[in-house]
Amino acid sequence: MNILLLGYGKMGKIIGEIAESRGHSIAGKINIDNREDLDKLDPKSIDVAIEFSQPEAAFENISWSIQRQIPIVVGTTGWLEKKAEVEEMTLTNNGSFFYASNFSIGVNIFFKVNEFLSKLMNETDGYQVSVEEIHHTAKKDAPSGTAITLAEGIIKNLKSKSSWNLKGEQESSDQSVEITSKRIDPAPGTHIIKYESPIDDIEITHTAHSRQGFALGAVLVAEWIPSKKGVLSMDDFLSF
Ligand SMILES: NC(=O)c1ccc[n+]([C@@H]2O[C@H](COP(=O)([O-])OP(=O)(O)OC[C@H]3O[C@@H](n4cnc5c(N)ncnc54)[C@H](O)[C@@H]3O)[C@@H](O)[C@H]2O)c1
Ligand SMILES: O=C(O)C1=N[C@H](C(=O)O)CCC1
């Protein structure tokens, strides 16, 4: 496949290496300082675009791809206020759009464990749930997209919770899942769910040791998406 990399920073570079090692070619490596190179590309020669840029850039990159009928796999976080607009654009243009807050297979197993645990926690009172995420200091958004997905998984399953808040930025309440964001180098991504009570604590953790798992997941989805249409997610891609 011929893959366009929209965003060629820490993630784009690893994705490019993995894609080439799997026999793919790279149609372009687009960054903030060479966006004009997009106009030199023949959209028909591109099989799929992979977008890992930054929150302010994602919407424009996604729109560019969808309007040219190029399937797009998006990992950029922190732009979700525009997701409904992108979904509508995808359907209007008969395009293919895939977003995941986290492409690691391990994290997607962790998402399911989180949902199962939060369902079980309806059976008892007295535990206070919270989410903590730890990432490197260059990360632009907080909370992480993964922490938001985890909080949404809790809200969907734990009857006592209906919203989430970022500690130190937004007010907390009894109905809210509090998320704490920490920035410590070189953390590629750690997420902790804690249920605390005076008697005991229950804690589950996912720790990424590198960015390799995120990048491999994005390439696997890029290999899968060209034959698919519509608004797609990890639940469509994974069989668990
Ligand atoms: N979903 C996942 O699994 C996952 C995993 C890791 C990172 N991320 C997210 O991916 C994004 C990128 O992470 P990173 O660590 O590679 O960041 P990074 O800062 O290392 O790289 C971002 C790159 O985007 C480029 N960029 C900025 N504006 C652009 C534009 N208009 N068009 C094209 N490129 C542009 C920058 O020049 C930079 O090289 C972040 O939002 C991060 O949260 C998601
Ligand atoms: O390094 C980042 O930035 C990461 N972003 C994603 C998020 O916000 O959840 C995934 C983990 C790494």
Automatic annotation (TrEMBL):
<dbReference type="GO" id="GO:0019877">
    <property type="term" value="P:diaminopimelate biosynthetic process"/>
</dbReference>
<comment type="pathway">
    <text>Amino-acid biosynthesis; L-lysine biosynthesis via DAP pathway; (S)-tetrahydrodipicolinate from L-aspartate: step 4/4.</text>
</comment>
<dbReference type="InterPro" id="IPR000846">
    <property type="entry name" value="DapB_N"/>
</dbReference>
<protein>
    <recommendedName>
        <fullName>4-hydroxy-tetrahydrodipicolinate reductase</fullName>
        <ecNumber>1.17.1.8</ecNumber>
    </recommendedName>
</protein>
<feature type="domain" description="Dihydrodipicolinate reductase C-terminal">
    <location>
        <begin position="106"/>
        <end position="238"/>
    </location>
</feature>
<keyword id="KW-0220">Diaminopimelate biosynthesis</keyword>
<dbReference type="InterPro" id="IPR023940">
    <property type="entry name" value="DHDPR_bac"/>
</dbReference>
<dbReference type="InterPro" id="IPR022663">
    <property type="entry name" value="DapB_C"/>
</dbReference>
<dbReference type="InterPro" id="IPR036291">
    <property type="entry name" value="NAD(P)-bd_dom_sf"/>
</dbReference>
<keyword id="KW-0521">NADP</keyword>
<dbReference type="Pfam" id="PF01113">
    <property type="entry name" value="DapB_N"/>
</dbReference>
<keyword id="KW-0457">Lysine biosynthesis</keyword>
<keyword id="KW-0520">NAD</keyword>
<dbReference type="GO" id="GO:0009089">
    <property type="term" value="P:lysine biosynthetic process via diaminopimelate"/>
</dbReference>
<keyword id="KW-0028">Amino-acid biosynthesis</keyword>
<dbReference type="GO" id="GO:0008839">
    <property type="term" value="F:4-hydroxy-tetrahydrodipicolinate reductase"/>
</dbReference>
<feature type="domain" description="Dihydrodipicolinate reductase N-terminal">
    <location>
        <begin position="1"/>
        <end position="103"/>
    </location>
</feature>
<dbReference type="Pfam" id="PF05173">
    <property type="entry name" value="DapB_C"/>
</dbReference>
<comment type="similarity">
    <text>Belongs to the DapB family.</text>
</comment>
<keyword id="KW-0560">Oxidoreductase</keyword>
<dbReference type="GO" id="GO:0005829">
    <property type="term" value="C:cytosol"/>
</dbReference>
